[in-house]
Specification:
This protein has ten helices and eight strands. By secondary structure, the protein is α/β, with parallel strands linked by helices. Helix 5 links the parallel strand 5 and strand 6.
């Protein structure tokens, strides 16, 4: 583990130019895309545009030596910014380590499409995989930040729609409590180089569009019934105001009898796994996530139709 690497990344994030006033949504999207474009994408993967449900998705595969299994990935960005391309360092890293293919969903964003549009798109994508013959035991949900929240809320919405649960959930620094009542929201304010309560409340307002944050599909760490959920891996850093989103979710999962791993890494920022290749802790965490997935996804019991996207 490298204290020097962690300190260097923290300094870099804090030295980013700070605007004098609030940025427009388009400026937020452009800035986020530029930041994530600098992240390392592993060699040996290939990508292709496809469609799941009614939405575009980016198919990410290992160029050689693939194995049966599918990751349905949800990118981060506070439900307001981001795309499959901004998460490519993460999806590519999981694919490279597991050999599974990944579909990274280009779900609709707020404020143009507020809650529950992203969840509706995610459920439709999952249904499309199932309708094409994919075995749910060979599918995992994975995501980062807001997308980490979608791994849980999509599972809830899929259950309500009568769909089977996926085999596993992996969430990197998930957003799971829009009430912002966790102690870490204030206790970690100085340690977090990314978020403040004010910045999160702005994007949350865009996503909620006046709807109540005290809803299981918005704040599942506080209000969700997790009975029957698949095994979960929650990875989070200590330098996050969202730390308690994961700790409270883990407590709720354990109380519901769900197998859950709470994986907390010291002195790293939000979605630190994206810093693969420059932060030892990022690569170690991705290795653990890949191991978790390969232990829980099984080879499909019957061959998937050739026309699956």
């Amino acid at each position: 583990m490298s204290r020097e690497q962690r300190a260097k990344i923290d300094t870099m994030l804090r030295e980013r130019p700070q605007p004098e006033g609030p940025l427009s949504v388009e400026q937020l999207r452009t800035g986020f895309a530029a930041m994530m474009a600098a992240m390392t994408v592993p060699d040996g993967i290939r990508t292709e545009d496809t469609v799941l449900g009614s939405r575009r998705a980016l198919l990410v595969e290992r160029a050689n030596d693939q194995r049966a299994g599918t990751i349905l990935y949800f990118h981060g960005g506070s439900y307001v910014v981001g795309s499959p391309e901004t998460a490519l360092s993460l999806t590519g890293s999981l694919v490279a380590r597991t050999g599974f293919r990944a579909f990274s969903l280009d779900y609709r964003l707020a404020p143009e499409h507020p809650f529950p549009a992203a969840i509706d798109d995610a459920v439709a994508a999952y249904r499309a995989l199932l309708d094409a013959g994919e075995d749910p035991a060979s599918i995992a949900f994975a995501g980062d930040s807001a997308g980490g929240g979608l791994t849980v809320t999509t599972c809830l919405a899929a259950r309500a729609a009568g769909l089977p649960a996926p085999a596993a959930i992996v969430a990197f620094s998930p957003g799971l409590d829009v009430t912002r009542t966790g102690e870490s929201m204030d206790a970690k304010e100085d340690a977090d180089p990314f978020f403040t309560r004010q910045s999160l409340e702005r994007t949350s307002a865009l996503y909620l569009a006046g709807q109540d944050p005290r809803h299981e599909l918005v704040s599942p760490a506080l209000f969700a019934d997790l009975t029957g959920f698949p095994p979960m891996l929650l990875q989070v850093g200590t330098n996050e105001v969202l730390l308690d989103d994961s700790t409270r979710m883990a407590e709720r999962a354990r109380a519901a009898g769900v197998d859950v791993i709470l994986d907390v890494t010291a002195d790293v920022p939000h979605v630190f796994q994206a810093f693969t290749g420059v932060l030892d802790e990022a690569d170690d965490a991705l290795d653990r996530a890949a191991f978790f997935l390969t232990q829980r996804l099984v080879r499909p019991r019957s061959a998937v139709r050739a026309d699956v996207p």
